[in-house]
Amino acid sequence: MNVKTLFLAGLLLIAAAAPMQAQVRIDGFLQGLYGGRLDNNNPTETEYTASETRMQLRAEHFGENVEFFGRLDFLYDGALEPEYDWELREGYLKFRLGNSFDFKVGRQVLTWGTGDLIFINDVFAKDYRSFFVGRDDQYLKAPQNAMRIEYYNPLANLTVVWSPRYEPNRLPTGRRLSYYNPMIPGIVGTGMNEMFYFEPPLPEAKFKNSEIATRLSRSVAGFNTSLYFYHGFYKNPVGMQMINDSTGMPYYPALNVYGASIRGAVMGGVLWMEGGYLDSRDDPDGDNPLVQNSSVTGMVGFERQIATNLTVNGQWQVDYMLDYDMFDMQQPAGAFVRSEVRHTVTSRVTRLMMDENLTLSGFVFFSPSDEDVYFRFSGSYKYSDELTLAVGGNVFAGEHPNTDFGQFQQNDNLYLKMTYGF
Q: Is the pTM for the entire model greater than 0.70?
């Protein structure tokens, strides 16, 4: 059955179910997103970062004991070759067992932690392809199949998430967004050569490669505090397996994360702190130059409304690499080598105007140690209850092509977005 047939079948099923199931709520939106890159030297195969029409349908049902939620996207994408696609972003059942246990089973979007676009203990998959081209913020979080169990207790609440199949971050592939290839080394895209299409193999689909994440949380003196544990793999392919003396294949090294966070109201605003120990299980001693070293990372952030309808926040993250001397000694001569202690600062500014119908927002990442920056900005106008118009852009800069944001410096883009809700 092709995508068009599935699309029509889905619409017919929803139309038929709506009058018979009055307790089922159905809504959604229709959206057009169009964006283009600003750098003519970008080695990708298209000038468009986005040229898509998207329809999202949401269905929700609350029963006495069971809740159902579904979110389905249909997409026509013309940025490269015209193609139809669809994705079940969410489709889960949620139910309670007794007075202490909640279960959520199925396709779902998972999130926890305290940071604003900085993720330490939030080890669930992200979609940076969507994030870098202007799709809605909801698309930063990639869905995954999982079972979430929550246990409520007066002492503390425990959440356990089990994902039977590892889900990686969705990174630029070289088709519409270029990236840094360490084997060249340099910034590459499929406009140069189809071999630069970037899609590393996943860990084998075995029970031992499933992911498990836990959070223990409770309120202490008005602050939300949490402890975290994760067992799985790095979400980016930060390891390299050599096929022969000159060819390597990126892969996802094994990872444990141990962390903690705290968040609460302070001085008329909100303060948060979060930290974690990233245990690189494939390179515990830091002596393998092809695998990411273990590290300790932490951040502090604060947000406050400084004037009517004007909110500002700031964050500072420090990442300390363990066994750094061994890492530094193993790097090739002439290449930029990250510092033992990497610093990243961020700030978000949000301004509401015109009776809060106009939202202006800017967010900046800056790493003084890596000498790179990423700035994203947007303006969104609520024309009516149904129609919203938005413009925005993504700008990258860096002194070195192999840093987190420097590798995307040729992906600067602007976009226009129109959304009709129903």
A: yes
